[in-house]
Specification:
The protein is mostly helical and 215 residues long. The chain has one domain. It is built from 8 helices and no strands. The chain is elongated and about 80 Å long. The C terminus is likely disordered.
């Protein structure tokens, strides 16, 4: 037997079977469903949503497109984050599309400052929506770290920030339905606190779940 065959035999003699890694896209989808259900339930538990919100979705095409754009942006961002937690699973094209779509969605509210999708109204105003949006985003970002505890992102900080962005934007989006519709209010009291969850994800990666870059 050649030395090469001896080496291969020696290296393979102690190998043990391992469980296959769960499908990362299924994991991302499960996280999205659980997070969305939690946010919707928590929002309704804390108070009623805007009475005419769902009828506005049916009657106002711009509001519907705006909302669907948010759903798509959050979905792609979540899939980007989960794929980033496995080396080689995320392509730069996929990440760029997710980032661009998120930018387009947020730009809709900037445009709304000049030309809102709905007639601005105080109807449905929630007294603590800024805190609701931030707090409701915390369990989903923590759940994302639980889901990925055995994975190994090559860029842990960026991955954690993507988790935070997806988690924070879920309540930010639903608050557009639950709370009053005034573009300036949406940006300041819904979008901004949702974006703050990004820093929560980064903090967890820096001091908690994921190793620091270079470790």
């Amino acid at each position: 037997m050649s030395s090469r065959e001896d080496l291969i035999s020696a290296l393979s003699s102690d190998l043990q079977s391992v469980r296959p890694v769960v499908n990362i896209d299924l994991m991302a989808a499960a996280w999205l469903v659980l997070s969305a259900l939690y946010v919707v339930a928590a929002t309704h538990w804390f108070g009623p949503i805007r009475p005419n919100a769902f009828s506005q979705l049916a009657a106002e095409p711009r509001f519907l497109v705006e909302t669907l754009c948010g759903v798509a942006a959050i979905t792609l961002t979540a899939f980007t984050a989960f794929r980033a937690a496995i080396p080689g699973a995320l392509t730069s094209r996929f990440a760029i599309v997710a980032l661009v779509l998120m930018g387009v969605w947020l730009a809709c509210y900037g445009i709304g400052l000049v030309s809102p999708a709905l007639e601005p109204s105080m109807l449905g105003k929630r007294a603590h929506c800024i805190w609701e949006t931030f707090v409701y985003g915390l369990p989903p970002v923590l759940l994302a770290f639980v889901f990925t505890r055995r994975l190994y992102p090559l860029q842990p900080l960026q991955t954690a920030m993507a988790f935070g962005l997806a988690a924070g934007m879920i309540p930010a989006l639903y608050m557009q339905i639950a709370c009053m519709y005034v573009p300036a209010h949406l940006l300041q009291f819904h979008i901004l606190p949702g974006l703050m969850v990004v820093f929560v994800g980064a903090t967890i990666a820096r001091f908690g779940r994921y190793p620091r870059s270079g470790d």
